[in-house]
Design goal:
- It is globular and about 55 Å long.
- The strands form 4 sheets. Strands 3-2-1-4-5-6-11 form a 7-stranded parallel beta sheet, with helices on both faces. A two-stranded parallel ribbon has the order 7-10.
- The longest helix is centred in the N-terminal third of the chain and has 22 residues.
- It has a domain of 215 residues: Rossmann fold.
- Helix 1 links the parallel strand 1 and strand 2.
- The protein has 313 residues and is of the alpha/beta class.
- Helices cover 37% and strands 17% of the residues.
- The structure holds nicotinamide-adenine-dinucleotide.
- Nicotinamide-adenine-dinucleotide binds next to helix 1, helix 3 and strand 5.
Length: 313
């Protein structure tokens, strides 16, 4: 039985990770400041004696004795990370410093939830880990992209300088139950619009592609990465299956039996045109890990979750 700290544990991905780690028999300390996370996401875990919930902001030092740290604290959707961009950078950078300092002190293994956004608007397709990216340092997405890039730098420097046992994963678009309906991400936007019978809004001409990973596949990859020896990453975790925005909208409309129509709007600044992971390294280092859940299989429970969420409003 391990003691594990999950920062950002009340968020979308964190809540699934906490549940998985508890199911494996670990003691889980979930730390969150509820900026985008919700108690509702982890309320079903509160009766478990191996689960502890702590309200804390990762930009302030925190001390606890644990074996492993998953550092997920950071708003992940553009409307939320752009709401207070200075705070977003602080969460990534100061949060990383605080958690790395803790890992160093207590000799814990620590995993950073980085992002495919470190590749920016890539010239290389699909993206592999050796690609350094094409990121605008002064745009409206930079607080997130550059904050995460600096966090990766800190992780590598704590590893090289202090021998901290680090792991870096670069997460590509992930979806599933416990996403917020208002988080502005494409899967949640389309599902909520379809369930409400509103127009489905596509930004640009809808031919830009994205890859979509179901959250259970990601959590499997995260725990496998945490268990590796002599491998720091970074490693991509994503689903290489590519869909255009039009294809996604049509799938959502058909699975929800919605009468919604598709409408087209101007593309926001710095929106990458194409994003697709190369997962060769993950397959090699994580015992053949690859996503198992198809878009349609993953959309069904996600739609059921949003249906219930909206009905409860
Ligand atoms: N969902 C994706 O597709 C995706 C893709 C790439 C990377 N990621 C990364 O995965 C992690 C989790 O993302 P998510 O999709 O679950 O987003 P989320 O917004 O649902 O979860 C983030 C959690 O961090 C908490 N948090 C934010 N600032 C904090 C702070 N200062 N102190 C303590 N807690 C704080 C939030 O309240 C929330 O519970 C993030 O680091 C994100 O950058 C997610």
């Amino acid at each position: 039985m391990k003691q594990i700290l999950v920062t950002g544990g009340a968020g979308f991905i964190g809540s699934h990770l906490c549940e998985r780690l508890l199911n494996e028999g670990n003691i889980v300390i979930c730390m969150d400041n509820y900026f985008t996370g919700r108690k509702q996401n982890i309320v079903h875990l509160l009766n478990n004696p191996n689960f502890e919930l702590v309200r804390h902001d990762v930009t302030f030092p925190y001390y606890v004795e644990v074996d492993e740290i998953y550092n997920l604290a950071c708003p992940a959707s553009p409307p939320h990370y752009q709401f207070d961009p200075v705070s977003t950078t602080k969460t990534s950078v100061i949060g990383a410093i605080n958690m790395l300092g803790l890992a160093k002190r207590i000799k814990a293994r620590i995993l950073q939830a980085s992002t495919s956004e470190v590749y920016g608007d890539p010239f290389v397709h699909p993206q592999e880990e050796s690609y350094w990216g094409n990121v605008n340092p002064i745009g409206i997405r930079s607080c997130y992209d550059e904050g995460k890039r600096c966090a990766e730098t800190l992780f590598m420097d704590y590893y090289r300088q202090n021998n901290v046992d680090i792991k870096i994963i670069r997460i590509f678009n992930t979806y599933g139950p416990n996403m917020r309906p208002d988080d502005g991400r494409v899967v949640s936007n389309f599902i909520v619009q379809a369930l409400k019978g509103e127009n489905i809004t596509i930004y640009g001409d809808g031919t830009q592609t994205r890859s979509f990973q179901y959250v259970d596949d990601l959590v499997e990859g995260m725990t496998r990465m945490m268990a590796t020896e002599n491998f720091t990453g970074p490693v991509n975790l994503g689903n290489p299956g590519e869909f255009t925005m039009i294809e996604l909208a049509e799938k959502v409309i058909s699975l929800t039996n919605s009468k919604s129509k598709i409408t087209f709007h101007p593309l926001p600044a710095d929106d990458p045109k194409q994003r697709k992971p190369n997962i060769t390294l993950a397959k090699e280092k994580l015992n053949g890990w690859e996503p198992k859940i198809s878009l349609e299989e993953g959309l069904r429970p996600t739609i059921a979750y949003f249906r219930q969420y909206l009905n409860a409003q």
